[in-house]
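Aim 2 progress. For 2-isopropylmalate synthase, the working sequence is reproduced below.
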Amino acid sequence: MSEKIFIFDTTLRDGEQSPGATMNIHEKFRLAQQLVKLRVDVIEAGFPAASPGDFECVKNIADHIRGAQIAALCRCNVKDIDTAWEAIKNGENPRIHTFLATSPIHMRHKLRLTPEQVLEKATAMVAHAAKYTRNVEFSAEDASRSDLDFVCRVFEAVIQAGATTLNFPDTTGYALPDEYGAQIRYLMEHIPSIDKVVLSVHCHNDLGLAVANSLAAINNGARQVECTVNGLGERAGNTAMEEVVMILRTRAERARLHTDIVTEHIYPTSRLVSTITGMPVQPNKAIVGANAFLHESGIHQDGVLKERSTYEIISPKDVGISTSNIVLGKHSGRHALRDKVAEMGYSSLSEDELNRVFARFKVVADLKKEMFEEDLEAIIMDEVLRVPESFKLLHLSAMSGSRSLPTAAVKLLVNGEEKETASLGIGPIDATFRAIVQLTGTTSKLLYFSVSSITGGTDAQGEVMVRIEDNGKVVVGQGADPDIITAAAKAYLTGLNRLEYLKKESKRGMEAK
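Predicted C-alpha cells for this construct:
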C-alpha cells in the first residue's frame, strides 16, 4: 500500500513573489477555489503581516474557502504570529507557518544572532503559535546550508514546543539531489521525535533541480512537498506541483507514494495561474506546456497513430487537456456555453459573470469561423478576472500603412471621466500606447512586449503580454482580442490598472502604520 505525500501549495504566497506576478484579492480568491478543486492539502494564502492588502486577501480566503487547510506565513516574532492567526482563525484547520534561518551565513549576516539565540527564539515563538492552534509548521530557512546537528537540535526543540510540521527548505536552490536526500535521511535518523511530525521540503529551482531534490527528499522520508503551479516563484521559481504529482502517478509502481490531487484539474489550473499572473508557460514545459503532447517527428507521429503509449507516457486527458478543441459557434446558446465552461473547470462563475462572458462570446463568435477552448478561456479571463479598473478602454481607432503616419485615436474612462485624444507613433501600437499615456497621465516604462496567437488561423484571437515598471514596481498585463492593436491596448491598460492597485495598497499600508 502506498503512502500519501501531502501537497502544500504556495502559489498564492511564494509564487506571487515572481517579479510582476502580484495578484489582487479577487484573483487570489478565484485561484484558491481552483486549488480546492485540485484537492491540494494546504493552501499557503499569503504573508498577513506584509501589508494590509495581504492580510485582507488571506482573511478572505480563510473565511470562505473550505476543502483545504489554510496556512499563513509569519516571521518568528509575536506580532507576525498574532497577525497571522487573526487572518486565518476562521479557516478550516488553519495553519501558522513560522520561519527562522539556521545557516551560519544567515545567522551571522542577516539575523545577527548566535545559534543559541536562534534556538531559544524558535522554541519560544513556536510555543506562542501553539497557543492558538495545534497546526503549527516551523521552517528552518536556508536549512540545506546549515549544520545538520544544529538543525536537529532546533527541530527537536520546536517539536516539544508544539510544532507538528517541520520544513527543511533548500532556500537558495543550492543542493544536489543525492546530497539533499542524504540530509533528509540524516534528520530522520537523528531527531528523536521525528515520528510525531510531518517532515516537509521546500525547494527552489536556481540550478534547475527543485523537482529532483523534492523527489530525493520524499524517497528518504519527507512526506510533504511545498510547491507552486507552473513552478512559479522567486528568482528561478519553486518545485513545480504538476511535475511532482504526475511523476508519482506515472511511476506509481516504483515510487509507492501517492497524492490526493485530481490531476484532471492540472491544466485548467495552470492556465488560470498563467493568465492571472501574466507569466506565460514555456512551450516545452513538462506536463502543461503547449508542446507537451505534440509530435512533429514522422517516426513519433507514426508510432502515436498506431498506439499512443509508444511515445506518450501520460494521456492528455489525465491532466485536463481536451482532445476535442472545437467547442462552440455563433449560434450556440447560453445553456451550451454554461455546460462548456463548467466542463473547462469554471463551474463557479456567477450569473452576472456568465452573462458578461456570453455577451463577449457572441461578439467574438461573429468574427471567427470556429471557436476553440482557448478562445473561450481568454474571454473568461478578460471578463471575469480583471483587476479593478481605474482606466477602461471605450473606443480605439488606429491607422497605419507603408505611406501613412501611424495614428491612434483613443477614448478611455479615467477614474469615471471620459477622455479622448489622438497620437502619432512609430507604429499603430506605439501610437496607441502614447495616447493611453497622455490620457492616464502615467509615467510607467514598458520593459517587455510580446504577442502570440491563441489558436491557429488568420481569424485567431491575438494575446498580448506586457511588463511595465513604475517607481520600482513591476507588473504584467495581458489582453486578448481578434484585433491585435485592441489586444495590446487591453494588455497595457491591465498593467496600468495593476500599478494603480499596488499604489493604493501601498498608501493603505502607510496609513495603517
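The mean pLDDT is 89. This observation will guide construct design in the next reporting period.
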